[in-house]
Predict the structure.
Amino acid sequence: MKSLTKINKCQLLILVTALAWISSRSAFGQPIRVVATFPDLADITRQIGKNLVSVESLATGVEDPHGVPMKPSFVPRLNRANLLIVTGLDDEHSWLPALLEVASNPKILAGQPGYIDCSVGVPVLEAPTRIDRAEGDLHPKGNPHYLLDPLYGKIAAQNIATGLTRNFPQYEADFDKNLKAYLAELDSWIGRWEKVAAPLRGVKYVEYHPEWVYFANRFRLQRVGSIEIKPGIEPTPNHLVQLVQQIKQENAQVLIYGSQNPRIPQQLQGETGIKVLRLYTSAGARSETDTYIKWIDYTVHSLVQAVS
Ligand SMILES: [Zn+2]
């Protein structure tokens, strides 16, 4: 009996020592594990978390943001994550909830502290008067492509910093300092982009999927129409005939598509002579757009070049 007590005490001591070591490692050694749905959000998180975070993005930037193909490797990454960063506004609604269901990580479910929704505080455009998902509308809460407006990139950065601090208050001063530096850097880029984008003012554009409204509002472009009848609904032949007429009547200058098949954009180019430009609506799709700032910069310059 005596020896058993001794063994138990000894085991207990080992256990306590081990636990103390583990907790000290997670507090001071191991970075905070963050999963972001898209590369732009992952980049912004790295800018604010610096060496305190280890960030992975699920999407690579070339996928349709509403239909990122689910890979088996996503599940363990979500299972181990301390935090999940999302665009919100149901941008990820067709693929993320199913992954979260099997990832068994209650910390990062919607509404929990580890779930960081970057859309909080964004003035939502194209908010529907009724929720219409039954008809296939991919924007049931309004247009979720707000990161194309760099001013709303600042809101996302603030939400990420707030979420990091909510979960890891011991690093508040670091997150705050890094956020301020990043916002100042973004402000200086925004000033440059406003000058560079001056030729975009009044440019008439056509888009494949309705995702350019925030960018267009910021830099004063005018939408003529979209290839999709409504978000996620492919066009009918009649719709395309009307769109060709609109492009000709309004003298639309540029057709923007991203992850979609280039067949219809090329067909419209053949019929109207409109310039066609492939611009992805997330960072990460090209090596020169691997950060949020580089992606917006590339987008602004590509459009200016296309219309000049
Ligand atoms: Zn969309």
Strands lie at 32-36, 53-57, 83-86, 115-117, 204-207, 222-226, 254-257, 275-278. Residues 1-5, 16-27 have pLDDT under 50 and may be disordered.
